[in-house]
C-alpha cells in the first residue's frame, strides 16, 4: 500500500483550461476530471459500492462531518475502523468539514449559532449541545478517515451582500489556519493513513474578495484548493465567472475542486473547460429518485463538447403516461446496467409503485451518465494534439 497523497498534472489542454490529473491516495489512484457521488450519511442513496464502481466511480464524498457527529457517532465509526470499512468502500474518499450544514442550520438561531470560535448546535434527537470548531472538525475527519479532508469554513450566503461575504471569508481564513495547525500535528487518520487537507476559497460573488481568498488559500500551501459558497453549483453562470477570477492565481500542480457542482451533465462539461478537476453533487441521485433520468448524448463542438438533449433540462421524466408501454431503454446506446436490462415501461411501473428497486436502477443510470461524461472529457483532453 502506498500510504501517501500526491497529485501530478498529466495533460493540459492547449485550446481550453481543461486538464487531466492523476491523484494518488492510500486507497488508490484516480484520474481527473471525475465526479464524486455523495454519501452524506455514510451511504450513497440506493447504491451499493459495487453499483458505484460499475457505474465508473473512482472516488466518493463519504460521510458529512456534521451528520456523522450526530449519527452514527464517532465511537461507532472508530470501532468499525473508519468510514471506508463501515461503508465497505475501498477506493478513495473525500469528506467535508460540516461548514455547509452549519450555514444551513444557522438560518435558525434556535438550532445553530455561529461565532468566532465555530458553530454551536443542538442534537436534533437528544438535545445535546455540540461545538463544531476548526479543531473538532479536523479531529472528527481523522476518525472518519477520508483520504481528502476539508478545512472548516463558513459557506458564504448570497443574501446579505458584501456585509455578509466579508466576515464569512475572514472567519474561513482564520479557521483555515486553525484547521491546518490541528492537521499538521498528525497528518494521518486515526488508522494511520495519510490524509490530504484542502482549503476553501470563499468571497461570495465579489471578484476582489474571491481573489483575496484565493491568494490566502494558495499561500497556506495545502494539497488542494476548493471553491465554495452558496453560489457555486447553484448559479452556473456565476460559478464560471468565479472560476475565471481565481484560476490565474491557482498553481497548476494542485487539485481544484468546485463544491456542489453537478446538477446536470452539462455543468461538469462547463467547469472542466475552465480548469476544474473534482466536483460533487447530490442532484444525480435525487433527480433519479424523483423520476428525472438523464437523457442526451455528447456532441463535439469546435473546440469542446456539449450534452445535447431533446428533453427539458436534459432529463426524461419516467412518470409520464407515454412510457407505460415503451419497450426502449432510458437512453438508446447507454451501457449502464439499467439500460442494458430494463425498459422504460418497467421503470415507470416501478416508479408508480414507489418501489425501492426503481430508485436503485434510476440512480445507477444517472451516476453512470455523469461518469461517462467525465470519461469522455478525459479522452478528449488526452487525445488533443500536443504542439511541437
UniProtKB/TrEMBL annotation:
What is the protein name stated in its UniProt record?
Queuine tRNA-ribosyltransferase
Name any Gene Ontology BP term.
tRNA queuosine(34) biosynthetic process
All residue ranges annotated as the tRNA-guanine(15) transglycosylase-like domain in the record: 17-387
Question: Record's SUPFAM superfamilies?
Answer: tRNA-guanine transglycosylase
> Domain of life of the organism in this record?
Bacteria
GO MF terms here are: tRNA-guanosine(34) queuine transglycosylase activity
Q: Known Pfam families for this protein?
A: TGT
Alphabetically sorted, this entry's keywords are: Glycosyltransferase, Queuosine biosynthesis, Transferase, tRNA processing
Question: Under the cellular component aspect of Gene Ontology, which terms does the record hold?
Answer: cytosol
Q: What is the lineage of its organism?
A: Bacteria, Pseudomonadati, Pseudomonadota, Gammaproteobacteria, Legionellales
